[in-house]
Amino acid sequence: MSVIVRSVEAIGSGALRVIIAIGRGGYLAVDAFRALRRVHFWGPHLLPQMSRIGVESVPIALFIAVFTGIVLALQASYTFTGAVPLYFVGTLVGKTMVLELGPVLTGLALSGRVGANIAAELGTMRVTEQIDALETLAYDPVAYLVVPRVLAGALMFPVVVMLANAVGVLAGWGTALSLLDMSSQEFQKGLQIFFRPWDIQFSMIKSVTFGITVTAVGCSFGYHCRGGAEGVGKAATSAVVVATMILLALDAFWAAVLL
Q1: 11-15, 35-39, 227-231: segment of lowest average pLDDT
Q2: Are 103 and 209 in contact (CB under 8 A)?
Q3: Which one, of 211, 157, 216, 250, lies nearest residue 32 by Cα?
Q4: Fewer beta carbons within 10 Å, N or C terminal of the chain?
């Protein structure tokens, strides 16, 4: 009986923590929408945040894209050999990079780099009472800290994803030419035969929502951090885990709704 009671208590406390986190995030989102009109607070910080979130994330995104494109080309060749024309390697590389692996792998990588960084930064500011000091000085901490980061994520994630998509396709192209005995014309044929402009739009929609999710989750966990250095570590870890789960759910949602 005691085991059952402890299990119910654990489930109940876990559910309460989830509900509290959702409620805090909702209140923070409302405050962020209200703070959008205070451009004089967040405007000067937008470009620096775009550089930190977007420009500094390009190397890791391109590194992942290069090897993803190479593996896609090799696996497509292995799968299609003797079954379908080899130019379908170009089709698989292009479609898979643009529709799925480009946005998702980039989003997951940046959820670790960007989301954890934001949560740790804001969490440190919270536990060292810097956010309280901003409020004392009549600064709106949501407009000053949260809004520029979320806007930068929404603006820069699509740019990083597009670069990753392009580099991934180019890496697959180079692999097909050098290792698979394909001609450039064959690979281009595979890219073009099933290409739709909607593929690019779909990738952009996903990347915008991924950018908002990663930055908003990081801001929420960091902004509501408690418990000193240990709390900062937990906030950073929770931000990555929750953002990853939401990204995968969003990926399935957009595929079901838009494709």
Answers
A1: 11-15
A2: no
A3: 216
A4: N
CB atoms under 10 Å from CB of 104, counted, come to 18
Give per-residue pLDDT as tens, 197-232.
888 999 999 999 999 999 999 999 999 888 888 889
Residue type, 236: A
The phi and psi torsions of 229 (rounded to 5 degrees) equal -60, -40
Query: What span, in angstroms and rounded, lies between the C-alpha atoms of 50 and 38?
Result: 18
- What secondary structure does DSSP assign to 132-161, as a single string? HHHHHTT--HIIIIIHHHHHHHHHHHHHHH
Token pair listed for 214: 């990663």
Which amino acid would we find at residue 199?
D
Q: Residue 115 is encoded by which pair of tokens?
A: 């989301």
3-state secondary structure of 182: coil
Reduced to 3 states (helix: H, G, I; strand: E, B; else coil), residue 181 is coil
Query: One-letter amino acid identity for 249?
Result: A
Residue 189 has pLDDT above 80, yes or no: yes
Query: For the chain, how many structural domains are there in total?
Result: 1
Helix ranges (H only) for the chain are 2-35, 39-53, 58-80, 88-96, 102-110, 116-127, 130-136, 141, 147-179, 184-193, 197-223, 228-258
Tokens representing residue 130 in the block: 């810097």
Domain that holds residue 194: 2-258
How many residues are listed for the chain in this entry? 259
